[in-house]
């Protein structure tokens, strides 16, 4: 399993020969200006919620990937289905076995609406089980006790947690979240894109280290393999 950070909350995931893009907000992020979204070749686009900083580039990328399937909640899936795109709708607690692995849509505490004001349903996160490696993508969320449910079903190899504060968890809450999901290997995201969510990298890494945990903060375009 290969995971690439494209800035903000955008991720590329390669599993079992399939390419997945999560929450593509790239073209309007000046920090990601070196990323060519026209070159993306994806099989799936997974969306945690409808906010523009997670969905901005969906339709543009689908112009080059007309067979790609959007995986999200029922409202988001319906929104794109009505535009003629392929979708797979899910809802909280539900799982589905795709050709790259099993996906479960889990709770997140946030809000969700499209830029045009269309209701985007309840926000969520994803647990992906594939290639003998399991990951949790928190989406935008507050710290929630529901995270404790995840390790009751799935032993995680990596937790991808929002850490930028103001709109989501901060670093200290993310440390607690890693306790809740019982995973000490964490990839931070949703930070530094704009002023509200800038963080001190050294301090964040040190705080995780002091709790016996590993926080990875990737450069945009950088990848890790599990």
Describe the structure.
- By secondary structure, this protein is α/β, with parallel strands linked by helices.
- Helices cover 19% and strands 29% of the residues.
- The protein contains six helices and 14 strands.
- It has helices at 52-55, 58-64, 74-81, 150-153, 171-180, 201-210; strands spanning 2-5, 11-15, 18-22, 44-46, 69-73, 86-90, 95-98, 101-107, 124-130, 133-137, 158-162, 185-189, 214-216, 223-225.
- The strands form two sheets. The protein has a seven-stranded mixed sheet, covered by helices on one side. The protein has a seven-stranded mixed sheet with strand order 7-8-9-10-11-12-13.
- Strand 11 (158-162), helix 5 and strand 12 (185-189) form a beta-alpha-beta unit.
- The longest helix has 10 residues, at 171-180.
- It starts with a strand and ends with a strand.
Helix/strand layout:
Elements: E1 2-5, E2 11-15, E3 18-22, E4 44-46, H1 52-55, H2 58-64, E5 69-73, H3 74-81, E6 86-90, E7 95-98, E8 101-107, E9 124-130, E10 133-137, H4 150-153, E11 158-162, H5 171-180, E12 185-189, H6 201-210, E13 214-216, E14 223-225
Parallel strand pairs: 3-4, 4-5, 5-6, 10-11, 11-12, 12-13
Antiparallel strand pairs: 1-2, 1-14, 2-3, 7-8, 8-9, 9-10
Briefly characterize the structure.
The protein has 226 residues and is of the alpha/beta class. The protein contains 6 helices and 14 strands. The mean pLDDT is 98.
Taking pLDDT < 50 over at least 5 consecutive residues as the criterion, the unreliable ranges are: none
The main β sheet shows up as:
7 strands, mixed
Name the overall outline: globular
Average of pLDDT: 98
N→C terminal distance:
5 Å
Strand order of the largest sheet: 6-5-4-3-2-1-14
Number of helices: 6
Structural class given helices, strands, pairing? Answer: alpha/beta
State Rg: 16 Å
| Proportion of beta-strand residues | 25-35%
């Amino acid at each position: 399993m290969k995971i690439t950070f494209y800035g903000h909350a955008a991720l590329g995931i390669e599993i079992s020969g399939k390419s997945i893009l999560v929450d593509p907000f790239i073209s309007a992020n000046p920090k990601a200006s070196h990323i060519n979204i026209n070159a993306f070749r994806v099989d799936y686009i997974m969306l945690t919620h409808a906010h523009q900083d997670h969905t901005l580039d969906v339709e543009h990328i689908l112009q080059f990937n007309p067979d790609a399937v959007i995986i999200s909640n029922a409202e988001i899936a319906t929104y794109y289905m009505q535009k003629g795109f392929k979708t797979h709708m899910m809802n909280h607690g539900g799982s589905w076995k795709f050709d790259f692995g099993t996906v479960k849509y889990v709770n997140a505490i946030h809000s969700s609406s499209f830029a045009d004001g269309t209701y985007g349903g309840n926000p969520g996160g994803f647990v992906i089980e594939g290639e003998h490696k399991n990951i949790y993508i928190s989406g935008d969320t507050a710290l929630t006790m529901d995270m404790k449910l995840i390790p009751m079903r799935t032993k995680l190899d990596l937790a991808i947690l929002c850490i930028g504060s103001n709109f989501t968890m901060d670093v200290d809450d993310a440390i607690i979240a890693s306790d809740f999901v019982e995973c000490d290997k964490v990839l931070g995201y949703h930070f530094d894109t704009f002023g509200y969510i800038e963080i001190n990298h050294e301090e964040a890494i040190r705080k995780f280290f002091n709790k016996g945990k590993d926080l990875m903060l990737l450069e945009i375009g950088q990848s890790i393999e599990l």
